[in-house]
Amino acid sequence: MTRDARWKTLLDLLVERGRLDVEEAAERLGVSAATIRRDFDQLAEQQMLVRTRGGAVPHGVSYELPLRYRSSRRAAEKERISAAVAELVAPGEVVGLTGGTTTTEVARALAARPDLATGSPALTVVTNALNIATELAIRPQFKIVVTGGVARPQTYELTGPLADGVLGQITLDVAVLGVDAFDPEHGTAAHDQDEAAINRLLCERARRVVVATDSSKLGRRAFAQICPTDLVDVLVTDAGLDGGTADRFREAGVEVRAV
What we know:
The strands form four sheets. Strands 6-5-4-9-12-14-15 form a seven-stranded parallel sheet, with helices on both faces. Strands 1-3-2 form a three-stranded antiparallel sheet. Helix 10 (243-251) links the parallel strand 14 (234-237) and strand 15 (255-258). The protein contains ten helices and 15 strands. The chain has 259 residues and is an alpha/beta fold. The chain starts with a helix and ends with a strand. It is globular.
C-alpha cells in the first residue's frame, strides 16, 4: 500500500469512528505501529488530524477532508447520483457546477453522454472548480467558463471577490450544488464560508437548482449556509435516505429523487 493510499484509509477511518488508536490502525492496515505513528505525525503537521496520546482525532468540529482523500468514499452511490443528475440537463443549456466529489462525477457523466458529443456548444459549463474545468476543457464541444478567485486546496474551488465579478454577469439554466449538509429547515450549507458564498451566487443566477449529495449529508447542518431550502428545486441522493427525511424535504417543496 502506498503512503497516499494509507493516509486516505486512515483519514476515512478517522471520520467514520471519531477516534483512532495506533495499534488498531496498524492492525487494520497491516503495517507496524511505528509506521502509523509516523503517518499520524505527518498528517498532524498538515492539520488534517490532531494527535492524542496513543492515537488521533479529527481536526476541529467542521472537519473537512481534502478532495483527493474523499474521492473514493461512497463511490457507488455517487456514480448513481451523478448519472441521474446528468439526465436532468438538456443539450445546449448553461450549467453551473460547484466543486466536490459528487459534482466532479456529474461532470464526468455529462461528458459521457452520447447526445452531448457534438454541438456548438453542446453544453456551456460554468464552474469555480479547477479540477472540473481541467477535465472538461479537452472536450471541444463544451464551452467552459471558469470564475476567477483564490484556490482552496481542500476542494480546488476558486473563491473571493474575483469570482463574484464573473458570476454577477451571467445567467444559468441549472446550478448543480455539492453540499456538506442539507437540512429541510436550515437549507444547504458548507463548512467554509467563502465556498458557501460562491455557491450561493450560483444558485441566485440559476433558473433551477439541483442538489447532488449522498444521504449521509442530509438532515445535517454545517457552518455556512449556501441557500434556503425553498430555492432548491430537486434533490438527487441515494436510496439510503430515510422516508421521514424525504417527506420533510417534499413538504418543503423539494422534488426528491433517491437512486
